[in-house]
Amino acid sequence: MIMKIKPVFFWTTALLLLVGLACLAYLGTFSRFIADDFCMAGDAIHLGLVEMLAKWYSSWTGRFMFILGTGLFGLAGPRFAGVLVILTIAFWCLGLAWAFLPLVRNAGWPNSRWLAFCAAALSLLVLFSSTPNLFQSVYWQDGLVNYSLPLVGLTFSGGILLRAWLQPIQRFPAILWIPALAFVSGGFTEAFSAMQVTLFLLALVLSLVFCERTARQRLVPLLVAGLLASLVAMLIVVVAPGNQVRLQAVGEEIAHPGLVRIITFSLRNMAHIFGKFFIQTPFWALVSILPPLLTGWLLSAPPKTLQAGWSLANLWKQSWVRGLIGISALALILVTAACAPVVYAMNAYPDDRTILVPQFVVVFSVISASALLGFGLRRQGMLHKLGESLTMTRLFQASILLILLVASGITVWQTVQQAPEFRAYAQSWDEKDALLRQAAQSGQSEITVTGGYGRFDVSDISTEPDYWVNGCMAYYYGLSRVRGE
After folding, report:
1. Which of 17, 19, 134, 400 is deepest in the core (most CB within 10 A)?
2. Could you give the angle at the alpha carbon of 166 between the alpha carbons of 105 and 119, nearest 5°?
């Protein structure tokens, strides 16, 4: 039987994770426009969204949803950049909890809603803490729209597909939602678009080969619709005239590597991303492994009869073993697919901000595989005597809480250290924003304000009025020239 765990354990776990995630979200409230944000917002104001889309699609990028998203959010003003971070993290966390819920319920684990929320909060806490450049991927509005928003869309697509796999659902709403989410999400960035197409294609093949007839009948139409929508979105992004313009502007060679180079270099980049997660952020890798592993072991029922030994033939018959192999293989393929567009376009390793996309797959797969491994080890009779001990059960629970307490404590400490700089930057920009708006309203054509400074490798206002950020800022506020001092 499963050892009964008091609800206070789940509440405490959720609280610790929520504190850590809230600290990261708090720093995001100090986000303001920077660099490209002024260019995009200026065009949204002066050209309108439709003409803006045509301009940027033909002269810079095919990321049609990125263009529309930055333009739409840019209309809300610099302060909304901080609000958008909070909204994205909260919506993403709730979406992940909703996506995890059918898996938790299917496993028969108690307190399913709390467990699903904990899994969601743990995923985002580890993702944000281990990604190479959190500022450019989440706190910077341009990066958030490019790399975080498509992952939010994928989260909800995944939740719908998991429900279609595990339980009967109404096909009509789902058959509309899946292609809509896939099309919108595929229009943000090439790395995600390639990964999404690969995901739908692999899921379609796996469902045709391994799913039972009833589940296959529910899944196949959704996966076909999602795959077609993903392909259309990727095609729109790829054929944009602006792609070549951008590559020439940044000085990249137009000649693309061959197929062999794309495959081998993408595989190398995949290995590098996995390696960085486990080697450069070992603590957060540990956080993604041990709590799910112990939770899966604690909440699973032991076998009624113990097996005499382990054998490959018997292990392969276990669904959890096949699940582990499937999760691992799928993660490796998806991360490789996310690296392929960068290799094709620039023959390079992805930028740090882009790594948020494959890193999401890494974190999600590690957490899922760890929980499944704990479940399988308990079902296999591993340490079965410990499962009968109330003391050991409480020790395992205490270990989970201790790990999460340390993780949350580190996040709180880092937030306390960084908050003064983030707060001072936001206050400084709010003052400059007021001065610039006042100058525009009074009819001034030129103004000098306190210069900014580059943050996390993102350019800011310069003392040179002809610098591109100054030009975009002047364009946004309706001024002729803006100079920093």
Report:
1. 17
2. 40
Quick: pLDDT tens for 134-179: 999 999 999 999 999 999 999 999 999 999 998 887 777 889 999 9
CB-CB contact of 5 with 298 (8 Å): yes
Q: Are 45 and 440 in contact (CB under 8 A)?
A: no
Q: Measuring CA to CA, how many Å separate 93 from each of 100, 121, 192, 215? A: 11, 6, 19, 27
- Tell me the C-alpha distance between 102 and 262, whole Å: 37
Side-chain half-sphere CA neighbours of 382 within 13 A: 15
Closest listed residue to residue 374, CA positions, set 5, 107, 16: 107
Residue type (1 letter), 124: L
Q: How far apart are CA 375 and CA 296, in angstroms?
A: 5
pLDDT category at 279 given cuts 50, 70, 90 is: very high
Q: Which amino acid is at 85?
A: V
Cα-based distances in Å from 121 to 93, 297, 368: 6, 20, 13
pLDDT (tens digit per residue) in 308-326: 456 666 777 778 888 899 9
CA-nearest of 358, 298, 391, 311 to 132 is 358
